[in-house]
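User: Okay, second chain of the day. Same drill as before: sequence in, structure tokens out.
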Amino acid sequence: MDEYNPGNEKRILDLKNEIRRIKGQGPILKQKLILEKTNLDGVKMGTKNNGTKYSVRDNRNRIFTPDEWKKFYDTLKLRQQFTANFLINTGARINEAYHIRIVDCDTINKRLTFIQTKVKARLGERHPIPREIKISTEFSKYLRRYINNLPQEVKNNNTNRIGILSQPAFDIAMKKACQKSGIKDYYLFSAHQVRKTAENWIWSLGVKESVFTKTFGHDIDTATEHYLKNDTYRFSEKDTMHEIIGDWAERLKGEKD
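Assistant: Same drill. Structure tokens below.
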């Protein structure tokens, strides 16, 4: 697996230029994608009161197969790969991942703490509730190498964010990579599909519902209604899952209910 090395000054400059380009053209690209979707199956169009067009997907349960993920991942650029790898190995909402700081990453004990979590108003929550999760041995090593390669001025302040892409930037990158890797319904994919993919894989590898719902930060009703599918996977596909998320399922199986 190629790794993003933020210590490379030229690469950092290239990435900064790419970020500036995305920020400058993001709204234009997004509007273009939305307008193109009018002729695609599984997508409904709507118009807000202010005239802004928006799209609604009929199928919100589309997830990656292990083979699709590998092909998709290989088409991403290095900075995009880091965001994708982080999401598939944590199941985090991208807005939670975006705010992850160096200090939140305990790669020695193989744990992460999300500070900026979703506030569930229907449950009476008024503020984000921090959520600690286990991560795999393999991803812990990957994340440790990544942090060690950060520029010294970034590492000097461990409250700095680690560099996850924003949701708009990653959603644009995802659709391009999905289309390039041959996924015909690429327009059904967003960052949230990575979270749903991770939860389905963990479930299929035998982790108890009471454990993985705590890891993903929601209840079993939400998981059943909006996340879990009754897909069955071949042994070869489960082997590919292990290649991608390492021993994460095995570590979660050690959790108490």
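The radius of gyration is 18 Å.

User: Thanks, on to the next one.
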